[in-house]
Amino acid sequence: MLRFGFDPSILKRNRGFRLPEGLIAASDQTAGQWIENRLQPWGWEGVTLRSFLPDTFPAYARILHPFYLYNEESQHRGEGQTVRWATVAGWSGATVHPLMQIEGIARVPFPYRVEWGECPDEGTLPVAESFALSKLLREFTTTPERCCLGYWEGNGYLPGGKIRYFGHEEGLLSSLEDMLHNLWEKLRPSPDLLAGVPRLAGQHREYLIYFGSLDIVPSLSRYPPWGLSPNIWWPEDRAWCVATEVDAYDTFVGGSNACIDRILNSPELEALPFSIDGRIDGDADMVNT
Questions:
Q1: Rounded to an integer, what distance in angstroms lies between the CA atom of residue 57 and that of residue 142?
Q2: 12, 165, 236, 276: most buried by Cβ count inside 10 Å?
Q3: CA 267/CA 162 separation, integer angstroms
Q4: What is the Cβ-side half-sphere exposure of residue 162, based on CA atoms within 13 angstroms?
Q5: 285 with 104: CB under 8 angstroms?
């Protein structure tokens, strides 16, 4: 599958780029090494949470990004009423469980489309959930002003986003990848302000590492001006860690039992308890098949 980042500024005369206020590039990559050393490779029979979060926490939670219900007056994302996965499952007769996926509960094949609205935000924690989670997590860290915020280097919001080809076949697709890569190198904004930013080497993902206060996280989810939550973030004291996979419709948190209990019982979040060994790929739902 071809995945590539696109920076819309290449279509404009002004191709400048500035990081959101409060976001500072890390000085080296040591901040993320404790995570790199704990992640496990993707499995042939499915991808588990171990590939995206370290196994150092006693408890984990899965936060589900909401669906959007539209009416005649509301036809745009952000204007529609949010709908929980449990509600959608009730409409379709599906079973709610920690490994449920969009295809199973909404009864729609990939690429996911629903006639009554829109599917959840992919690869980013929505603004309302970002506010709720950040406020809650502040109570469970001693370093809220010093957090590490990681962004997948291929995100289209980042200038210089890399073109990625995930596959093993040679031939046409490989040639297409080379062609797109060469085109991107000519069109990408210059200079590349991300070239020297330290990376966290994840499994099939590399993340640009920045520092910032926990308070700026909700503003990063808002569009404009940024519109993208961090893909992986944690406080300096490593009391918890949050991950939003770029191709997924949910966010995972690892933390203390007390922290995860608060998330599971938050009225502002639709969350389920999760296992570090639980599958997170699109084929994980073996109940609603």
A1: 17
A2: 276
A3: 38
A4: 14
A5: yes
Residues 126 and 116: their CA atoms lie apart, in Å, by: 19
> How far does CA 58 lie from the centroid of its chain?
22
DSSP string, 115-175: TTEEPPPSSS--HHHHHHHHHHHHTT-S-TTSEEEEEETT-TTSTTPPEEE-----SHHHH
The number of angstroms, rounded, from the C-alpha of 198 to the middle of its chain's C-alpha atoms is 19
279 assigned to some structural domain: no
Within 10 angstroms of residue 274's Cβ, the number of other Cβ atoms is 23
**Structural domains in the chain (count):** 2
Amino acid found at 78:
G
Q: Could you tell me the two tokens for 50?
A: 């171990």
CA distances from residue 115 to 68, 71, 75 in whole angstroms, order as listed: 11, 11, 12
Q: Residue 133 has which token pair?
A: 């989670």
CA gap 35, 238 in Å, rounded: 10
Q: Which residues pair with 235 in a beta bridge?
A: 147
Q: How far is CA 19 from CA 161, 221, 244, in A?
A: 14, 14, 20
In the structure encoding, which two tokens stand for residue 158, read together?
């980042």
Tens-digit pLDDT profile for residues 213-248: 999 999 998 865 567 899 999 999 999 999 999 999
Domain that includes residue 111, residue range = 66-120
Q: How sure is the predictor about 19, in pLDDT bands with cuts at 50, 70 and 90?
A: confident
